[in-house]
Amino acid sequence: MCGIVGYVGEHNPKDVLIDGLKKLEYRGYDSSGIALRSNETVQVIKSTGRISDLEEKINNTKLINSNLGIAHTRWATHGEANEINAHPHKVGRVTLVHNGIIENATELKNTLVNEGIVFRSETDTEVAAAVINKCYDGNPIKTITEAIKLLKGSYAFGIIFENSDKLYAVRKDSPLIVGISDTEKYIASDITAIVKYTNKYVLLEDNEIAELSTKDAKFYKNGEEIEKKIEQSTTKIEDANKGSYKHFMLKEIMEEPLVLQRTLNKYINNMDKIFDVSKYEEIHIVACGSALYAGMIGKYLFEEKANIRCITECASEYRYNKVIYDRKTLVIIVSQSGETADTIAAMRKAHEEGIDTLAIVNVKTSTIAREAKHTMFIEAGPEIAVATTKAYLLQVAMFSLLALKAANIKGLENNYEEVIKEARRLPNLVKKVLNDHDKFEEVGKELLDAKDAFYIGRGIDFAICKEGSLKLKEVSYVHSDAYEAGELKHGTISLIEDNIPVFAVITNEKIKDKTESNVIEVESRQARVYTITNDGSITNHHYKYVVEKISDYFQPILVVPPLQLIGYYTANERNLDIDKPRNLAKSVTVE
Ligand code: F6R
């Protein structure tokens, strides 16, 4: 959601900025822009639509000779997606790009309007630029230090002052890193935007200010200079490229065996690294979207296997609902990006109540990774497609391991060694499923004209259905819904009509007959039933795909990839922009 790149160095920034913006496209955006500075002149170029539209505009413009610039992709929040609202915003001597939301923008704007400032856009960013310009006293560090005292909300700013040849940056509750090389300095929303040029970076903490020039990177907090550690990223250039794949989504699904191997190796060979949840009486799993659905699988495993009471709730509700913490409770926060605004707020709510938090997170530099009391990192590497796939699968794997360890500690698991052995086979088993990709492509073809679809399952299979349904709708725009199989006939079955696709997930032996009878109910109403199961004996409906039957701790890990591929191939048949579905952003940094 919104992306920032900035450059100061020996070269013209244009190529670095455009290249960086392209790498940040995955975050979701609807307009973009750049600002270049030279000899007290700042040139701003903006465009709606794709980065290629901005690039065309830049190529048709006579550019100033510059070595300092900032650039931005905007996902509209305050005001529609048009050129005026696109960033950068220039007010007086200040030019700004911004991620986040200034919560007191309206109040500040009213004051500034009364003072005679004329605003062109509807954005909170222009208000922030005006506030910084108002504070400007010739000393950029002092100016920014004073200005941020007036701003409420979240921000990552890249700032150019007309009469300074340095690049400035500051952040609060919104990600921003500073990239370092000998003769060039960068700012970026994440390392993928600049990894082509450097893998050395500095992580800015809240309200720390970076002052960057070709040779120097200096950092300040509350007006005082501070020391910052230079970190080395393990992200590789290949991680930010599609390689031979048509889409990142497909590439990332196909990487699942590899990332599973990496994550399982890290934890299975050292079970001490797995957090012990057995000492808690209640677990709350809080997250958004797919991360929440991974948590729903976790809930079943914690309750069934480790006998620990567990609730799941989406973070946007949890943060505002009354939560009763009357038992020894652990709040598990799940997030790929570690920057989802509602999830961060839910985590902080738990902290305010003195509750322990464990974060299952992918991005190690993220806010959630840094603030959670305990963390378990999944090793997915950068996930570029907006729709999560490999990170979701690893979140599920993490819950399997947490539940297994807790069940073992509580003496509830008699087959511990066998289950561990099975875990080691998982990467190969997933590879076998992915090798059947043409079978799922066939389903995608059959869904070419589908307008609606349903997913049904019971227990843990229902949790899997939630993710299968989300994957289909978000990338292919086929309306779909997931139901507890027994719940459909309490109303929704009226929507079942001739040829409507219904996906049935049946892996749970205890209740497979029950789900089967629900399948027959929809089939009797002419639904086209696609079954994904671990039981070859189940009746052949319209379509059946059978995965190997393995320990229930890990069974979902084999069932989800077919559903991910069906979502992908359905969208591919429709020639959609799979990696950047309409209206979606990769990391949702606003409420
Ligand atoms: C769906 C998807 C989203 C995310 C959700 C949480 O494919 O990617 O539903 O799972 O926005 O994001 P994170 O995990 O970054 O907190």
Question: Which assembly state applies to the chains in this document?
Answer: single chain
Distance between the termini: 12 Å
Give the distinct bound molecules.
fructose -6-phosphate
Share in β-strands? 15-25%
Low-confidence stretches: none
Percent in helix = 25-40%
| CATH class category label of the largest domain | Alpha Beta
User: What's the number of extended β-strand segments?
Assistant: 25
The CATH architecture assignment of the largest domain turns out to be: 4-Layer Sandwich
Query: Compute the gyration radius: what is it?
Result: 25 Å
Strand ordering within the main sheet:
3-2-4-1-10-9-11-15
Q: Could you name the CATH homologous superfamily of the largest domain? A: Aminohydrolase, N-terminal nucleophile (Ntn) domain
Concise synopsis of the structure shown:
With 591 residues, the protein is of the alpha/beta class.
Describe the structure.
- The chain starts with a strand and ends in an 18-residue tail after the last helix.
- It has 591 residues and is of the alpha/beta class.
- It has 17 helices and 25 strands.
- It folds into three domains: 3-239, Glutamine Phosphoribosylpyrophosphate, subunit 1, domain 1 (4-Layer Sandwich), CATH 3.60.20.10; 242-434, 3-Layer(aba) Sandwich (Rossmann fold), CATH 3.40.50.10490; 436-574, Glucose-6-phosphate isomerase like protein, domain 1 (Rossmann fold, 3-Layer(aba) Sandwich).
- Bound molecules: fructose -6-phosphate (F6R).
- Fructose -6-phosphate binds next to helix 8 and helix 15.
